[in-house]
Amino acid sequence: MEKKILALLLVIICTAPACKWLSNPKVNSEDKVVRLLNVALAEEWLAAYQYWIGAQIIKGALGQQAEAEFIAHYQEELKHAQQLADRIIQLDETPVLNPNEWLKLSPKGYDHPSDFSAKALIGQNIDSEKRAIKRYEEILALVHGKDHATYDMVSGILRDEMEHEQDLERLVE
Ligand SMILES: [Fe+2]
Ligand SMILES: [Fe+2]
Q1: What pTM value is reported for the model?
Q2: Where are the alpha helices (DSSP H) in the chain?
Q3: How many CB atoms lie within 10 A of CB 1?
Q4: Residue 47 CB: number of other CB atoms within 10 A?
Q5: Residue 78: nearest ligand to its CA?
Q6: Could you give the CA distance from residue 78 to residue 1 in angstroms, rounded to a whole number?
Q7: In a domain, 98, yes or no
Q8: Is 5 inside any structural domain?
Q9: At 117, is the secondary structure helix, strand, or coil?
Q10: C-alpha 121 – ligand 1 centre gap (Å)
Q11: Span from the CA of 137 to the centroid of ligand 1 (angstroms)
């Protein structure tokens, strides 16, 4: 009788998510990496749109210079989205499928431009770049020493985001 109760208890415990983690501690951290790669993917599409729409509506001093910079950054954010989707697929997972999910995945959501001056638009994009830098630093800390392919890819993206921030800061100096 006692053996039956013990067996039943084991069945109950091992159907709990904790058992999956206990039997393979890597599973949990890999799930988190994929989740964050999808968050980053959603944020790249939102950032690309923010640059693209900014380039269409920009007004005032610095407008032309900023427009060219916004378009260059827009293209690089799309390249980052491609890299993230490729890596998620390499990890046998699915990149976010529905644009409705972008805003749900991105904790800061999306600040649509309300002031069309170059200064305001540049400021909004600087804030987004700062958030992107934090996101990629978070992923790097998670995969350091564990997943070299993701580490290398994210390091390259992080360098681009730091350059983007500097490009924009230079425009308003
Ligand atoms: Fe990016
Ligand atoms: Fe960027």
Answers
A1: 0.83
A2: 2-14, 17-23, 25-57, 63-90, 100-105, 118-143, 148-172
A3: 5
A4: 27
A5: 1
A6: 62
A7: yes
A8: no
A9: strand
A10: 17
A11: 13
| Contact present, 129 and 165 (Cβ < 8 Å) | yes
> Cα of 140 to ligand 2 centre, how many Å?
17
State the maximum Cα–Cα separation within the chain, in Å, rounded to a whole number. Answer: 83
Q: How far is the CA of 133 from the centre of ligand 2 (A)?
A: 8
Note the ligand closest to the C-alpha atom of 167: 2
Please give the structure tokens belonging to residue 98.
């529905």
CATH of the domain at 79: 1.20.1260.10
Q: What is the tens place of the pLDDT at every residue in 36-90?
A: 999 999 999 999 999 999 999 999 888 999 999 999 999 999 999 999 999 999 9
How far, in Å, is the centroid of ligand 1 from the Cα of 91? 20
Dist. CA 81 → ligand 2 center (Å): 11
Q: Is 112 exposed, middle or buried (0-12, 13-18, 19+ CB in 10 A)?
A: exposed
Q: Quick one: which ligand is closest to 82's CA? A: 1
- Confidence label for 5 from pLDDT (cuts 50, 70 and 90): low
Output the CA 61–ligand 1 centroid distance in Å.
Answer: 26
- Domain limits for position 127: 25-172
| 8 occurs within a structural domain | no
